[in-house]
What does this fold into?
Amino acid sequence: MVIAVDLRSIQRGTFSGVENYTLSLLERMIRQDKENKYILFYNGLRPVQTEELRFLNTTVVARRLPNKLLALSTTFFRQPNFTKLIGKFDVLFLPNLNQVVLGSEAKLVVTVHDLSPVVLPEFYNLRRRLWHWSVGFKRTLLRADKIIAVSEYTKQDIVSVLGIAEAKVDVVYQGVDHTRFHPNLDTDKLRYVRNRYGLPGDFVLYMGTLEPRKNVEGLLQAWERMEVDIPLVIAGKAGWKYNEIFKLARKSSKQRAIHFLGFVEEADKPYLLKLARVFAFPSFYEGFGLPVLEAMAVGTPVVTSSVTSLPEVAGDGALLVNPYNFDELTFALDQLVSDEHLREQLQAKAFLRAKMFDWDRTADLTLKALTKV
It folds into this structure.
């Protein structure tokens, strides 16, 4: 069988959740697979670094069409057919929803990370909403022969919001790279990361894109009300609709104790998580929420939301709070910063929970979904 994989979602030059999922999954899946061949497709002027995916059973196909032109042609004219771009294949795998046109002869498998653009469009700016519209969520998912949802919550959204048949959707959880995210991290590298980012001794950490869905504004307000005096570190690139975050920080009575790190190198993330006293991730909506598991895997106590997929992922390994209730979030932060017994209890549960999520298992189940169609 020939499996074509669309790599356009990793061409943006950043390393967010989708990029992490795509590379972590494909590296393991292609390496494990001794029976099938893979065509890795990308398009546009920006090259994709695919060295870690160059196994004997892979071929890379690169086209030089401007990606915006391809997206417009696909959206409005339903051309070109992907078999003309890539060549002959049996199954096309989209690790993330993207514009695609396929004839009836090829099968399509799509991973859906969340439906926030459909459920909560107000969290996105106009540019992002237009792009999400152009993808054609429902049209693509109705065309798909199999859909992979990264959580049960995401599956239920797909079924209830888009009216997709339940039998068409398989749940395959993401994994944690336990070779990188573990409690026994190198002390010299911990010291290096602390110095590189100018980190305070103890701190509450948020790490993720700065956008309304992540509820960073709520975290700022809850943190300012804390009884315990501890700095707040906010790591991650500015996404969209982020101006209110910086306005709140400038108005804060504890402004000097807020540290914005901006984009953090992928190699530094385990160490940044480990150095934090508490990891706070009070998102309003997540299809999975991998940073929560990664923090749990290194042994940092976590406060996260009691809504969407986050309780399903965190289990009993984190404190769960209502993200719309600042007092509840403040109380949880104060508890985790100051209560050593609670911290130790949570760490023990978190280690066990994080071990349940493994990229090799994700790769195995994804390959089964692909071969099933």
About this structure: The first strand starts at residue 2 and ends at 6. The two ends are 11 Å apart (CA to CA). The chain has two domains: 2-175+359-372, 187-355. The longest helix spans residues 17-32.
